[in-house]
Amino acid sequence: MVTVRGRQRNKRRGRVSKTTAGKSRRKEYTKKHKVIIQNDLVRKNWDKSKTLKENFASMGLVADVNEPYRTTHHKRKPDQVVEEGDVGEYKAVVEQMEVESKNGAGPVVRHYSPAECELWGGLVRDHGTDYKAMARDKRNTLQHTPKQIKRKVEGYLKFQDSDGKTKMGCVG
């Protein structure tokens, strides 16, 4: 008769203990996650007792933009017509969102880190608009091409002209 140790015996019986780390990870994964709402208008009209889909439906919005097009086989039939929803009861929220979208957010200015400001500012100070010389400069450690450098320097100069400086300030 062969003697078998405890763990191997359990393997033969099909009883292998699970790790506690795996159990806790599974519990964390199944926990309900908090919804973060960035839009002020949606946040004002949000009801915490409702689910995400219920909240969007009460505001006249759709949680999943592809939902009207789905069928059982995820293919739309050619004769199926998707109708726009009636916005009568949701008029206030929908109108406010339309006004916000028409106003627009304006141009987006990319923020540059102090290290990038130092690099591009130094290259502009030393070489002016000679992008080929900037490409050969030893500070160009990422080996940007002259076209890439031109695009990055133009963005940097826009950033310098705008009032949107980084919190840490811009060196250069």
Could you characterize the architecture of this molecule?
The structure is a single chain. The longest helix is centred in the last third of the chain and has 16 residues, at 146-161. The chain is built from eight helices and no strands. The protein has helices at residues 6-13, 20-30, 40-44, 52-59, 91-103, 114-127, 131-136, 146-161. With 172 residues, it is mainly alpha-helical. The termini are far apart.
Overview features:
172 residues; mainly alpha; 47% helix; flat
Provide the low-confidence segments as ranges: none
* Count of helical regions: 8
Main β-sheet description: none
Shape: flat
Assembly classification = single chain
Q: Percent range for helical residues?
A: 40-55%
Mean pLDDT: 77
Strand content: under 5%
